[in-house]
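User:
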Amino acid sequence: MTAKTLLRGITWNHSRGFVSVVATAQRFCEMRPDVEIVWEKRSLQEFADAPIQGLAEDYDLLVIDHPWAGYAAHSQVLVPLQEIIPADYMADQAANSVGHSHASYIFNGNQCALAIDAATPVASYRPDLLARYDLQKPDTWSDLLALARQGRVIVPGIEIDTLMNFYMLCATQGEAPFVDDEWALSDEMSLSALEQLRELASLCPRDIFAWNPIAVYEALSRREDYVYCPFAYGYSNYSRLGYSDNVLIFDDMVDIDGQGRCQSTLGGTGLSISTGCKSPEVAREYAMFSASPVIQRTLFFENGGQPGHRAAWTDDEVNRRSSNYFRNTLPALDRAYLRPRFPGYLHFQDHGGAPIRQYLMEGGDGRQVLAELKGLFQEAKALYA
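Assistant: Predicted structure:
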């Protein structure tokens, strides 16, 4: 009996990140009985922080975050997919990208992953509780603060989400961070954004500083006191009947008092192939299967995934089964801010949220926070210079 081709993959530990790829692997292996694909999972924090070099040595398939694109191009630990995937397939992926999701995995011409999952912070709320407490969904930043003063608003406050929200406020108000991979923010804008975040955080329960988006959605969908989250990385799972105690409705974010609706920071995940993979042809076939428009809007979505292909986001059945999550939030995805991806950027991302979070929790000197952020950025730029 011929031995099966074995592929090992590593993804992140949530129904959205794990069950979806297990389902696509199961079906792929049913069609290809000569192949076995085994997926393992790591925590969401490890997904954000753990270097991909070690993972690429141990796994054939990696689900990654796009800020790793620069490091991948520099270290050559991931296969440049444009070299092994047909041009017409890649053209379809580019034409049907959700926002910058497809392009986010390109650095110096190397496509390190296919965007199988798309996300950005979006708003969410409990319509039943808004009705119960006779409250209105906020439309502006001022409305948001007014609702927060009533103790009804929560937002993720861990370090990484705090940093992403700092990017959001700067980008929305006319100064996108890191233009041309330089700092590019004025002190005035930086300090104003810090103060805006501090004011909002002061009106939320202190518990938020230990909460990531999943914890926020668990609280919002299962408790009766909080009714609204203004921005957290969207999880369409919570918009589907049966996933949690109460269905959440997801929507676009507030307008910052005439400056436009929030331009939040693009997230999502991509499926990549390690350069150490001993069966890259099989891995390529599986990656193309998983990212294809039909699988994205059916098997991938049906098993908890949050697709990266635009065909799924506009699909009537996908939206019917998710309380219109995808249509409601697509405008936010399309305008989402794309983080830098230069090789040393993740040093800044790993450490930049801590001083901001500390400032939101305890107050202090915003200029000192800003000086620390600028120092971290210079360290990041120097890492691979």
